[in-house]
Amino acid sequence: MQERVKKPQFDVVGTRPIRPDGVDKVTGRAKYGADLKMAGQLVGKVLRSPHAHARIKSIDTSKAAAMPGVKAIVTAGDFPKQASEFVPAGEGVVNYRDISNNVIARDKVLYEGHAVAAVAALNEKTAIAALDAIKVEYEVLPHVIDEIEAIKPGAPILHDDMITIGMTPPPTKASNIAKRVEFNLGDTAKGFAEADLIVEREFKTKAVHQGYIEPHACLASSSEDGSAELWVTTQGHWVVRAYCAKLLNWDIGKIRVTSSEIGGGFGGKTVVYLEPLALLLSKKSRRPVKMVMSREEVFKASGPTSGGTVKVKMGVKKDGRITAAEGEITLQAGAFQGSPVQPACMCAFANYDLENVKVTGYDVVSNRPKVAAYRAPGGPISTYGVESVVDEIAEKLGMCPIELRLKNAAKEGTRAAYGPKFGPVGLVECLEAAKDSDHWKAPLGPNQGRGVAAGFWFNIGGETTVSLQLNEDGTLTLMAGTPDIGGLRASLCMMAAEELKVDVSKIRPIIADTSSLGYNFLTGGSRSTFSSGMATVEAARSIVKQACGRAAKLWDIPEEAVTFEDGMIRPAGENAGKHKPMHLSDIAKVAGKTGGAIVGYAAISAQGAAPSFGVHIADTEVDPGTGKVTVTRYTAIQDAGKAIHPAYVEGQYQGGAVQGIGWALNEEYIYGADGKLQNAGFLDYRIPVASDLPMIDTVIIEVPNPRHPYGVRGIGETPIVPPMAAIGASVRRSSGVRFFELPMSPPKVLKAMKAAGKA
Amino acid sequence: MRYEKPTTVEAATALLAGQGARVLAGGTDLLVQMKARVLNPDVVVDIKGIEATREITKDASGYTIGAAVTGAELKEHPTLSKDWPGLVEAANLIGSTQVQGRASLGGNLCNGSPAADSVPGLIAAGAVATIVGPKGTRTLPVEDIMLAPRKLALTAGEFIVSFKIPARPKHGGDAYLRFIPRTEMDIAVVGCGVALALDDSGTCTAARVSLGAVAARPLLVEDAGKALVGTKVDDAALAKLEAAARAACKPIDDKRGTVEFRVDVAGTLTVRTAKIALERARKV
């Protein structure tokens, strides 16, 4: 793999040590969501709606409750009613009424798989028999699945009180459009008037699931005294704690949540499904309750990301300068409002330095599972449309698609359509690296084509707490609170080791539970290495300061006369007196006698997160006899700011690219006319398997983020933004046909190639 | 649910003649369907205790392959892959490596899926099933066993003990190809088995073509075979083969492919499969 890392200025940062969680993961010792057992635990199961849309007329649990071995049953009636109000939470806002009604249906079921009741029983067989014994009387209602059908007059309305926000004047009647958003810069009419060429296209993408291998799972134990413990696979256990406390009307401080190892999240494990049910079943049964979703439940009842319709219009001068750009993005929210339409709009044209931009977006509900975050939520959908149009413009102008992008690329000082001016960013560097790469210059075989696309993601900081303890023998214990999905613990230990000049293997990290550490927002928005890294550096620097203070005490000199250099605590100069330099471990030994334990603690709201741009190059080969597209070569190039552990940065680039390839070629939620999902399993929901893919090559660009002590940018989400457009551009050249709909699955490709006389 | 593992065909047929009994060979379909609550048998009759279901024997007339012999075992046999490579390859496209260590030819056929990979391979090879039941033993060509999805020509108490595969013709070759959107871990959208024989001059003397996943049952496409017989399997013959294969398809639109797509791909795949079988026949 090519690597564009500048000469290392660090001892540890930028190297590739073995991850501290690695051994237990490869031996199977690591404990995931379903791995914890407690004495006396019950099995919890959920009864789910067989209908896409229905009114619940009655639920009769009496027969199930009377069955031997059934210990508790809950329905919506056991949960307090929540008011409909929007409460700020992390990156966006949440509505607790919607969260509660999604966890367990009240009055109406809004999608196939919507939870209606939950049971705790002695074993799985009894729990399933109890679900069969619950009688639910439904009044089946007409349903709507597609987002464009859902906004047509006469479509079945999901929520009688949904009045579109963001319209002037506000509508008087309920609809399935929850929200309209708009972003403007300059004057697009003027820009289009100046254009020599205008390309206007409409794109369609399907709902896709994050596809994490580990299903949702938790183990809850509620005590008679009102306290409770919850073990759960999640991206944010403080967030789980807050949601559960609110949904159950319990005290936050009485719920202790521990995050297990996590077998993939990609945004999908930022919400609650089973957890409030398990806590309440445990309270009612006075026994621990374990709940694990089946794969079918994961597909039907946990959030995929939106499918959507994206209209793009771009105008350009003959020399390639883009004069105006407009987008209209309509995204599925699922059964409750809250699609990622806002970030989709904000990302749409972020790759470019444009004077005239207008983007509007619509958040549309339909009878599908509520969407959850998925890696750069919304970004891949709008970028697919925009980057595909940019590729078509390059083709029509006869320009190299990289040169066209270089001509218009966002750079330091560019004002994004959504408001801010960019600081130092690395898009130009990524494009130059793409142009210079062996891949871009390599020859192609028959039926092969090459495409390129760029992508952007904002990245966030936020509330973060880290504790770093100096142990008696000089080793260290690091407590972080952002669940480790992609190598976080390794990266944090490396930053601490760099600061303290200790061997990285002497620092042992854990992800602490919610009662052991201050608040941490979840692992999302590509924030964990950035934010927890910043807090770790602050905690490490506090340890240095404290250690210097202890030496000052021992040497009986002022604290200012002690320095920390090359891992040793020394007198600052001749005037400070002659004292033998001490290592941190020397101070550790006498910590108890010089003031007590030395603990570095940082509770921050991390500021200064910086965006990451990436450029992907994809080669595909199409089989003209079957329409099958094979990715033959792939390179992901991206600005990391600074790669703390390059292997995990590369892993993120590769993983994002692969998820995007799946989205481009085969993944889709397929519904029947009955509104039921037809492919709720990995057989017919086709994520790529290893043999479907070439090695994904990576190039790490490093344009440091000036607001992070090591220059870190978030990097986890950007890699899923460019792939669909890159594959689309590549398939355009390998098949001779330009596609406007995902996935580009064999039946569609063959049909289009036949129609074009190419097959 | 009761589990039984008889060691004689008589004991097995007696158990299978009862209500709610199912045959267990490798279990890669049965156990999955039981877990998914699609099937809920009262008695599961494991036939792997019966020696004849687990053996591969070879004589001058060909091979006898036990119904519970796994794909992995077919691959390990010293001569089967040389004589009937298409059949062995078909059986080893089923599921993953782990599944191939359990999944059997008998199970793949009796699961009753039109998309079963090994079935077109068996049909093309001219395999005949040996069936035992309360009334004794009978034989039936594999193409006559499956009638419709999940429906077989077996009566109560009957099960397949083994398959008879004829000896390979002097210049004979077979092949199996399937179309899936991925490279593995998938179910055929179209499957095609071809076996053909040549005389010393290279003229095709016999050809059997079978298609899977394009109709309610795996098909023996006689017109497709006829398109090759008497020819040198040249482009004109292959064009006729392609047309005959497409004409035989009666597929459905579903989540795995459209009618139009399956018909198109059936033609493409049949030609590609025939070319591999031809190449193999020319080399022996």
Can you tell me about this structure?
The complex is a heterodimer of chains A (759) and B (284). Chain A has 759 residues and is of the alpha+beta class. Chain A has a domain at 462-606: Aldehyde oxidase/xanthine dehydrogenase, molybdopterin binding domain (Aldehyde Oxidoreductase, domain 4), CATH 3.30.365.10. Chain A is 27% helix and 25% strand. In chain A, the strands form 7 sheets. Chain A has a 7-stranded mixed β-sheet, sandwiched between helices. Chain A has a 5-stranded mixed β-sheet with strand order 9-17-16-15-10. Chain A has a 4-stranded mixed β-sheet with strand order 18-26-27-28, with helices on both faces. In chain A, helix 11 (379-397) packs parallel to helix 19, helix 12 packs antiparallel against helix 13 and helix 15 (488-500) packs parallel to helix 16 (528-555). The longest helix of chain A is centred in the last third of the chain and has 28 residues, at 528-555. Chain B is an alpha+beta fold and 284 residues long. Chain B folds into 2 domains: 2-45 and 55-166, 2-Layer Sandwich (Uridine Diphospho-n-acetylenolpyruvylglucosamine Reductase, domain 3); 174-283, Enolase-like, domain 1. Helix content of chain B is 33%, strand content 26%. Chain B is built from 11 helices and 14 strands. Chain B starts with a strand and ends with a helix. Chains A and B meet through helix 20 of A and helix 11 of B.
